[in-house]
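Structure tokens please, single chain.
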Amino acid sequence: MQYNRCGNSGIQLPALSLGLWHNFGDVDDFNVATRMVLTAFEKGICHFDLANNYGPPPGSAETNFGKILRTQLASHRDEMFISSKAGHDMWPGVYGTGSSRKNLMASIDQSLRRTGLDYFDVFYSHRYDPSTPIEETMQALIDIVRSGKALYAGISKYPAEQQQRAYDILKEAKVPCLLSQYRCSMFDLKAKTNNFQCAADNGSGIICFSPLAGGLLSGKYVSGIPDGSRVAKGSPFLTPSHITAERVEATRKLDEIAKNRNQTLAQMALAWVLADSRVTSVIIGTSSEQQLLDNLRALDSAAFTTDELKAIESIISEPSLSF
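Here you go.
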């Protein structure tokens, strides 16, 4: 496993981290989830990314990860870097969502109970909440770190202006932002354009999620919507409307480049996100042990030639591909 320095800190993270957004809830096979976590750890993935609303139902991914940790990996806690987040809809009522101090403070206590952990390595504000002063949100993160409930603070999906303000507040309190989490893929370049350099300039590590554009860059939708796929199951995050003729054609062209690199399209897509020197780690979401192992092979051919990068850029620069 390749490990990268995280911003201006002493932390190193694996180039690929395991995310528990999907496939770790109570609706999923717990034995499969267990095998994925254990295999990831055996292969050098020491960073596991959670959020309080991951499931379904919300909270169940944290509970299930806690069971795996307690029964299989309890003696390895100090070898692991475990993150969670709060800010999206979680429980009924006006305090069950958003980035207020009340929500974040209640959320981290609930998340610690579900996982059985004494602390998180990093705790994120999962989203910028325009209805809450950013000073209030950041102060909650500062107090969470100072209380020992998390070692570091992070932000996720913050727009550029609020991103810089968050860094300034945290830096002034001497609780610098360790990680900034953004969606990034060959079909989603917005954060790469708008947020990466701000994070790098402020000494924050960058961790990317959805590197396969929700599965579009897995190659599985080139010939239609296969049974059992995320789209077929009615995912709100990837719908039939996303599978346009332009994206299918771009996927075919990218797949040809990947084949010439002796990679699958998914492996090349992961390597492409990691090729940006500002990126610390990429979060992979897997549904099986074999898919996890296949994703790890992206690191076997992580480097790109100048000609390969130019060819990829000529394909993905088409605005109609972005979503």
